[in-house]
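Fill in residues.
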């Protein structure tokens, strides 16, 4: 009876042991990129670096932090539909190790249906994933003058949905955090040089946490 009781105790403890063992085997979401990886940054004016000198744009600063060769394909005023037209020739012209997609703010500012933006983002992610497994989606905050005034912008919800369904890395709360701080903005919807530097720093941290670095 004692042996049977001891065996039952040992069996009851197995799930806890397995759980503890699993805690030491945390896997990153993707393999690390090489030091001189070539990266495409596809986006709108926030990627372009509007409101600051060209060398202050976050793709430039992220390249300095990581050593990656980052092509800045940010276009002022671009929408998700425009980015969807631009992506195929960009991919045809270059071989990228990773693709960062940050688009959709102008869709929301112009009142485009969220479903249309979501579909375009999903298509962008799908095309990018066919080119490389390293695809990240940068969430953009939903325009809200009141929330911006009190420093509490939040990401539009469809970015999380698209990232999950498309198996892309979601980079959350980076634009929202920076654009919520008036001292980091050049105007109502764009960062200044200090803001873009902070965007790059937060991007670098999230990509490192995801195993890209």
């Amino acid at each position: 009876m004692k042996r049977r009781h001891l065996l039952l105790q040992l069996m009851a403890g197995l799930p806890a042991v397995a759980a503890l063992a699993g805690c030491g085997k945390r896997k990153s979401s993707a393999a690390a990129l090489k030091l001189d990886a070539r990266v495409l940054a596809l986006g709108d004016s926030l990627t372009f670096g509007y409101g600051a000198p060209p060398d202050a744009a976050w793709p430039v600063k992220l390249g300095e932090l990581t050593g990656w060769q980052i092509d800045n394909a940010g276009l002022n005023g671009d929408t998700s539909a425009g980015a969807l037209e631009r992506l195929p020739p960009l991919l045809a012209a270059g071989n990228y190790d990773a693709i960062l997609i940050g688009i959709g703010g102008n869709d929301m500012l112009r009142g485009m249906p969220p479903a249309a933006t979501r579909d375009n983002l999903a298509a962008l992610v799908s095309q990018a994933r066919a080119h490389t497994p390293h695809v990240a989606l940068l969430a953009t905050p939903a325009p809200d003058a009141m929330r911006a005034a009190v420093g509490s912008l939040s990401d539009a919800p469809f970015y999380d949905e698209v990232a999950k369904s498309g198996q892309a890395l979601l980079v959350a709360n980076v634009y929202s955090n920076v654009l919520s701080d008036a001292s980091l903005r050049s105007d109502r919807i764009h960062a200044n040089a200090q803001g873009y530097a902070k965007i790059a720093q937060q991007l670098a941290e999230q990509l490192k946490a995801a195993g890209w670095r």
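Residues 1-28 have pLDDT under 50 and may be disordered.
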